[in-house]
TrEMBL record, chains A, B, C, D:
Coiled coil (UniProt feature): none
Keywords attached to this entry: DNA-binding, Repressor
SUPFAM superfamilies assigned to the protein according to its UniProt record, in alphabetical order: Homeodomain-like, Tetracyclin repressor-like, C-terminal domain
Annotated DNA-binding residue span(s): 24-43
Keyword Repressor set for record: yes
InterPro entries per the UniProt record, alphabetical: Homeodomain-like_sf, HTH-type_Tx_Regulator, HTH_TetR, Tet_transcr_reg_TetR-rel_C_sf, YvdT_C
Domain HTH tetR-type: 1-61
Naturally occurring in which organism (per UniProt): Lysinibacillus xylanilyticus
Pfam families for the chain: TetR_C_26, TetR_N
Protein name (Swiss-Prot/TrEMBL): TetR family transcriptional regulator
Domain of life: Bacteria
Length: 192, 192, 192, 192
DNA sequence: CATGAATGAGCCTTCATTCAT
DNA sequence: TATGAATGAAGGCTCATTCAT
């Protein structure tokens, strides 16, 4: 693992553990096993690791989606898998997403956020588009816009369970069912 | 306006303008027109104004909803008003919401967030419940869970427009339409 | 008890408990049951209570000496009582003495300390003088100078026991015996 | 001179000049010719230099004793030299001793003080022990306990002169004589 | 490339003191 | 006399960043 990768991994670790404000460069370099000055050979400032962290995170999201959704299956099942993966992502990276969001909100323009999530949005757009072309979901959907709505919706639902709720397993199933029902209707899903 | 209110107003102003990390207590007291020490008579630390800000914000949200939605009109029109108000709220307070969310993520447990939004959730729950009882929306909806989904959905949509997008007015109408369509289907809206 | 007395008593309490630097005016007024501003009606500044505390302390010392030493008994027994009382004083007020000493060292001229202890020195001087006039102790002693030496000696001995040592009771008796032996020889005590 | 030594020397200087409470870290670093932050690389807090100062001071005391007392001469002359050195020490470091004592009283347990003075006590103990073994002072003395008494005694006497009195030179000789006389008797000194 | 000691600007917070009531 | 809210100066400490080695 290169020094740069070490730093990014250590930063993820430390930011998750301590939060943005309390994550010191000294913590990160300690976790990375490098010297204080070395950090600045790779990143110009403390918060400039954030985009790199975001990139790593989105890569993981994309991988999870691609691995978790079987393009062979019927759309209805795929949709269920999309929700499952979305929940897994929030479970595993929800705090990290919130962190990066906050980090970006504090530094650069929030618009940057769209670029970060772009691959996720693109995947979802394509997912809907294909279903639409096959007549599985209603034709009136604007897949580009709805892809963002759906991602927001899945995240909202998952946050209800993982960030806020306590009795997770129980709630999770109920929320997922409600969400799937919601999506079925929203997408005008036709059971072929 | 009491000193405490002055501080909260000034804090809102400064946090919005400078972001969490760069908002100094000295900025806040200057904006509030009080002495540095006075701040600490009302709040034990710099970030402890956050919950107070959140409370003010939610009060404004509730007021906006109650004023913006005419309970006399048919549900379909009310829903449109709900979306309109939701968009207005995000337009006006979106950055503040993001700020508070980040501020809370850095200090207390994220669960606190649910308490803050509780009145908004409660209103939405009741809104759906009445529609359901009148048979306007499908009976299979769990209004409590869906209220959160819908609020998340409206916020996602509005953020697309106001936080990220540039060409706002144009986009806004399209996104709103897409969202309303999405909701109509999701809720199984019956046009009476 | 007058307000002024209340303040002095509260100050003694708080200074003993928290030490000089950490004893806040707010602590003192709270302990005294008065308002913050009232303190400044009686004392011009935070540390200006110190002399008043010192005065109270010396009064207690004098009282203890006068009550604890029986002028009727032979000198040898009186000397033992003087040592006993000296030890009691250090046990009870040793920390306070150190406190006042430090407090004075930080503010005014250390010379003030002599004025504070003056009554104690005077009593000891007189005590020695009478013994000398009766031929009980050696004539070559300068009672004025030696009174200070002896007080310093008793305090040193008692501090060994109460401020520093752990196994107090055991040690105390041994130290007292050693000290008395030391004093007997130093004073050239004649057993009549 | 290492940075740490520079800090200690500067701290001694500043604490003596301004007293404990008014000695600011900024004063110390200025005197040491280093940056403010550098102070905290070597000491965790402002008052944590105190023990280091104490150590330096005791080293100086030991050096002064070893240089000022000629172990070859007869005990009586050595005792005079011990008193002379003791007076010199108080003259030169008396204020520092009071300072450190107060500083320690404010922070750590007072017991620490005994550890600091331990080398001085040990030297005196040994000094007495040898005289006792040679029959020069009375056999009934417990040298360990009396070493502390004697050090307390010398300090008391010297403080009378240097800390409190004005007409120093005059008084000094008289006090010294009185003290030596006092010690001769107390120790049961035999003039061989 | 790597190091880590050194820097120093800057902020949060405390608290003695004041003063209008 | 008494109050206690308000003041604001002041300082300990942190920590991102630099740079000589």
């Amino acid at each position: 693992m290169s020094k740069e990768e070490k730093i990014i991994q250590a930063a993820i670790e430390v930011f998750r553990e301590k939060g943005i404000e309390k994550a010191k460069v000294s913590d990160i370099v300690k976790a990375a096993g490098i010297a204080q000055g070395t950090f600045y050979l790779y990143f110009p400032s403390r918060l400039s690791v954030m985009p790199a962290i975001a990139k790593v995170m989105v890569e993981k999201i994309i991988t999870a989606i691609e691995e978790g959704v079987s393009t062979q299956k019927p759309f209805e099942q795929q949709l269920e898998e999309v929700v499952d993966v979305g929940f897994s992502i929030t479970k595993e990276y929800g705090d990290l997403v919130a962190l990066i969001y906050a980090g970006i909100a504090q530094t650069e323009h929030l618009k940057e956020w769209e670029n970060i999530y772009a691959p996720y949005y693109a995947w979802m757009d394509n997912f809907l588009l294909q279903a639409q072309q096959q007549g599985t979901i209603r034709a009136s959907i604007d897949t580009s816009r709805s892809s963002k709505l759906i991602i927001g919706l899945i995240e909202s639902a998952a946050e209800q369970v993982y960030l806020f709720d306590d009795c997770k397993d129980e709630t999770m199933k109920l929320v997922k069912l409600e969400l799937l029902d919601f999506l079925h209707h929203a997408l005008g899903l036709r059971h072929p």
